[in-house]
Design brief:
With about 325 residues, the chain is α+β, with helices and mostly antiparallel strands. The chain has a single domain, classed as Alpha-Beta Complex (Sulfite Oxidase, Chain A, domain 2). About 25% of the residues lie in helices and about 20% in strands. It contains eleven helices and 13 strands. A hairpin with a 2-residue loop joins strand 8 and strand 9. Helix 2 runs antiparallel to helix 3. The N terminus is likely disordered. The structure holds the ligand Nc1nc2c(c(=O)[nH]1)N[C@H]1C(S)=C(S)[C@@H](COP(=O)(O)O)O[C@H]1N2 and molybdenum atom. The ligand Nc1nc2c(c(=O)[nH]1)N[C@H]1C(S)=C(S)[C@@H](COP(=O)(O)O)O[C@H]1N2 binds next to loops.
Length: about 325
């Protein structure tokens, strides 16, 4: 048997979560759709584990409900699940390493440099980005290429609103993200086995899609370090590796970015990384996934574009998705 330790997400959901908390999370989705979320986030965070784990994280001001509420049927995962099963190789390659080792990361001051083919390049302070953009909560399913997923109440703003402000020129075809590399605070830079800094990128139309989110928080509070503080990206129809964490640089360019995993292992990871149950990874099937919190062996079918097909399929019309994986 491969079961090494009994984590909350290895056992059936009902075994780890009191009935009341279970209902409050389902409720969370409904209430978020209906009204202001401040009070709702607080009530969810009122659960003992979430309250303890997130007490040092500042609440984010002025978070509004989103127009993009999915009909996600699984409950939102707990703060504990979302922050203890992560990929952030700068802190180690085990899923629990980021929670264990990212505490030392300092995320202030923090500047995101924006340059390249853009009319208004500049250095943008994280707290200005938080203050000057209308934050909203988006509940998205997050599917990792390795075969697990969870449902996260992100806080952020559409990438499109930032792009509209900085005004890329007509030459810009892609945007490239570079993430932080800081040896004094990142213990696994030499041992993780991939090159750093971690680089990702998007086609402009993907970046401008209304679902594409610049993430600065979750559960109504500042982003925990292990989830990519203070600023990361998330595209719910793509595998998790597209969502670079702790971004320091956005460059608009006419060349397709050489994203880290595609450079590292080109036959396994491509530039597009769209969730696609019909295109398997060379070493495993992508037809199903394990939902964190539902039990180790409870797999469920993976949906085309992770279930966001209506919103994004048009971006890829006419493309051979086996070739552009
Ligand atoms: N800088 C950086 N960003 C990264 C990674 C990483 O190792 N370093 N891992 C990626 C992968 S493979 C995944 S699945 C997601 C995980 O995000 P999560 O821990 O919030 O679920 O982050 C992505 N962003
Ligand atoms: Mo991943």
């Amino acid at each position: 048997m491969l079961v090494r330790s009994k984590k909350p997400w290895d056992v059936p959901y009902s075994d780890v979560t009191p009935e009341a908390a279970y209902h409050s999370r389902r409720e969370f989705i409904k209430v978020a759709a209906a009204g202001a979320i401040g009070a709702v986030a607080a009530s969810v965070a009122g659960r003992a584990d979430a309250a303890q784990a997130s007490q040092t994280l500042a609440p984010l001001p002025n978070v509004k409900k989103s127009n993009y509420v999915t009909d996600e049927t699984d409950p939102v995962n707990s703060f504990e699940q979302i922050t203890n099963w992560n990929n952030y190789y700068e802190f180690g390659t085990n899923k629990t390493d980021p929670a264990r080792y990212s505490g030392r990361l300092t995320t202030r001051p923090w500047t995101v440099k924006i340059d390249g083919m853009v009319a208004k390049p500049g250095n943008y302070e994280i707290d200005d980005l938080i203050k000057n953009n209308q934050l909203e909560e988006r509940v998205y399913r997050h599917r990792c290429v390795e075969g697990w997923s969870y449902v996260i109440p992100w806080v952020g703003f559409p990438f499109k609103t930032l792009i509209d402000k900085v005004q890329p020129t007509s030459q810009a075809k892609y945007v490239e993200f570079t993430t932080l590399i800081r040896p004094s605070e990142m213990p696994a830079l030499q041992t993780a086995g991939i090159p750093f800094p971690y680089i990702e990128g998007l086609r402009m139309d993907e970046a401008m899609n209304p679902l594409t989110l610049v993430v600065v928080g979750l559960y109504g509070k500042m982003l925990p370090n292990q989830n990519g503080a203070p600023i990361r990206i998330h595209l719910p129809w793509k595998y998790g590796f597209k969502s670079g964490k702790s971004i320091v640089h956005l460059q608009f360019t006419d060349k397709q970015p050489r994203n880290t995993w595609a450079v590292q292992t080109p036959n396994e990871y491509g530039f597009y990384a769209n969730v696609n149950p019909h295109v398997d990874h060379p070493r495993w099937s992508q037809a199903s996934e394990r939902v964190i919190g539902k039990g180790l062996f409870a797999r469920q079918p993976t949906l085309m574009f992770n279930g966001y097909e209506n919103e994004v399929a048009n971006l890829y019309r006419g493309m051979d998705l086996r070739r552009y994986f």
